[in-house]
């Protein structure tokens, strides 16, 4: 019998385990289908610490992103995790000034600090290789080593004697008097049982399938695949800020943007395409080259097609409600539905990395 079972060892599952470990003495089992932590959504992102400018005021994304942003920076400082508070520019042309102003006002409503509209001259001073007439500057955006952050959460969890079952999957759940009985297929293909008072469903791409094991009316997910292309080494260190176009609301994405890693290697992405069904296909299609080149040329001076080559791909789990391509997180203790002790986290896509510590602390407080 465990006090808590966490399904999923991605950034959010690990953040929850870390918070429970630091604030309670509860026994914890973490179940993960991959051979180690953070192999799914969490390892296939732009690694951006978001500011909170995009999200609807009052939404869970706005709440957890703006809370979590400063928590992430603070945690990195205290735990010697690499990050770069580089800031970013959302760039546009003259005819897009109204859209940029709307984004600016949304950021103000969400109390995002260090934001201002800047003109062409200021853009050129900051980023001479960028062409734009107007931009929204956001100083509190940054990038991080996601793996190092997850490794730190995992270490804290292990120091608190949490158990981990890797290469294992939930195949069935039954509600019992003491909580929940879970059937788990382990790495050897055997079925084990585990009893838990609390179950936290942080299963990422499969979070809706796990939720449907106890409640068929839980939200369902659609997959949005995003590919990245890297820029050749001649572009290394060519930009000091992240560069974003205006959001692509039709595809529910922030647009094909320019980001970089700790080594200052530049990349463009992600694209955003709805997948058929729920196949986890991480191939980077070469036919996307023309799209990436076209999008990149909109704001990068001197970009040539041969500068681009396929890099990696990720999949975002998006809640499909009323055909809204930019849905909110679903985070709920399902007590009112008749499932006390069952917590669902469904559709935790971007800004899940930024939000992880804030979500983890909230979930831990519910359990306390």
Instruction: Give the total of domains.
Output: 2
The parts where pLDDT drops under 50 for at least 5 residues are none
Overall number of strands: 20
Q: What percent strand?
A: 25-35%
**Name given to the CATH architecture of the largest domain:** 3-Layer(bba) Sandwich
State the separation between the terminal residues, measured CA to CA: 18 Å
The CATH class label of the largest domain is Alpha Beta
Q: Give the ordered list of helices and strands.
A: EHEEHEEHEHEEHEEEEHEEEEEHEEEH
Helical segment count: 8
Report the helical percentage: 25-40%
For the biggest sheet, the summary is: 8 strands, mixed
Please name the fourth-level CATH homologous superfamily of the largest domain.
FAD/NAD(P)-binding domain
The average pLDDT is 96
Radius of gyration computed on alpha carbons: 21 Å
CATH structural fold name of the largest domain = FAD/NAD(P)-binding domain
Q: Give the overall form.
A: globular
Structural category is alpha+beta
């Amino acid at each position: 019998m465990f006090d808590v079972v966490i399904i999923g060892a991605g950034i959010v599952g690990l953040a929850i385990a870390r918070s429970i470990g630091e604030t309670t003495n509860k026994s914890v089992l973490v179940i993960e289908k991959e051979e180690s932590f953070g192999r799914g959504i969490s390892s296939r992102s732009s690694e951006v610490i978001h500011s909170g400018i995009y999200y609807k005021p009052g939404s869970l994304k706005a709440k957890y992103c703006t809370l979590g942003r400063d928590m992430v920076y603070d945690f990195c400082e205290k735990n010697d995790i690499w990050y770069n508070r580089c800031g970013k520019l959302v760039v546009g042309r003259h005819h897009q000034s109204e859209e940029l102003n709307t984004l600016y006002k949304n950021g103000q409503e969400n109390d995002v600090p260090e934001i201002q509209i800047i003109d062409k001259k200021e853009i050129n001073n900051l980023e001479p290789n960028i062409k734009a007439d107007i931009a929204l500057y956001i100083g509190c955006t940054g990038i991080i080593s996601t793996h190092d952050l997850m490794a730190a959460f995992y270490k804290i969890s292990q120091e608190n004697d949490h158990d981990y079952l890797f290469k294992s999957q939930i195949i069935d759940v039954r509600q019992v008097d003491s909580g929940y009985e879970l059937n788990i297929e382990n790495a050897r293909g055997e079925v084990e049982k585990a009893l838990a008072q609390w179950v936290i469903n942080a299963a990422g791409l499969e979070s809706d399938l796990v939720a449907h094991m106890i409640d068929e009316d839980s939200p369902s997910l659609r997959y949005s695949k995003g590919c990245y292309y890297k820029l050749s080494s001649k572009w290394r260190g060519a930009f000091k800020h992240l560069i974003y176009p205006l959001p692509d609301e039709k595809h529910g994405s922030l647009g094909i943007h320019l980001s970089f890693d700790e080594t200052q290697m530049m990349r463009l992405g992600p694209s955003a395409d709805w997948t058929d069904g729920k196949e986890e296909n991480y191939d980077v299609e070469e036919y996307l080259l023309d799209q990436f080149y076209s999008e990149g040329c909109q704001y990068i001076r001197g970009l040539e097609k041969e500068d681009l080559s396929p890099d990696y791909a990720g999949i975002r789990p998006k809640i499909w409600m009323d055909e809204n391509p930019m849905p909110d997180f679903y985070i709920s203790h399902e007590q009112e539905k008749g499932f006390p002790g069952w917590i669902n986290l469904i559709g935790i896509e971007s800004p899940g990395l930024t939000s992880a510590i804030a979500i983890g602390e909230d979930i831990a407080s519910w359990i306390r």
